[in-house]
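Review session, final week

We close the course with one last complete record, chosen because it touches almost every idea we covered. It is Response regulator, a protein from Dyella caseinilytica with 140 residues. Go through it on your own first, then we will talk.
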Amino acid sequence: MHVLVVDNDRDNSDLVYHALNNAGYDVFQAWDVADALQLSRQHPDIGVVITDMRLDHQVTGLEMAEKMRQRLRNGYYILTSGDWDALIPGCPRDMSILRKPYGKADLLCAVRHGATRRLGYVTHALSAAKRRQETALLLA
C-alpha cells in the first residue's frame, strides 16, 4: 500500500518515511501542499496520507485533505500536530488525529488503523471471508 507523508519539517518527514518504509509500506514524501497534490494526481492509489496540521500559512493539513478527497476517493487521512489546540475535536470517518510527540509504535498503529478503515471502504461489497483474507494480507 502507498502512504504519502506531508510535512514541511524534513527531519520529521524523514523519520516517518524510514519507519514506514522499514515496516514494508511504499512511501512518498511531500514537503508542501503543491507537492502533495501533485503526488495525489500522479498516484491515485495512495491509501493513507499522513499530514502535519500546519503546512504553510495558507493551507492547513485539513484543507489539503479536503482537496485530495476528490482524487483519493478511498484514502484515509492522519492529521498530526504538536499544537493540540489546532486539532479538530471530531473527525470525519476517513480521518484520525495523531498528536505529537508520537513514537514509532503509535505511528504504525495509526497507519494500520487507516489501512484497515480504507480496506473497509474499498471492499464493502466483498464477502466477509474475502474481507478477512485481505485484511490479514494488509496487516502482515
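Two points worth writing down before the exam:
Strands lie at 2-6, 26-30, 46-52, 76-81, 95-99.
Helices lie at 10-22, 33-42, 61-68, 104-122, 128-139.
Good luck, everyone.
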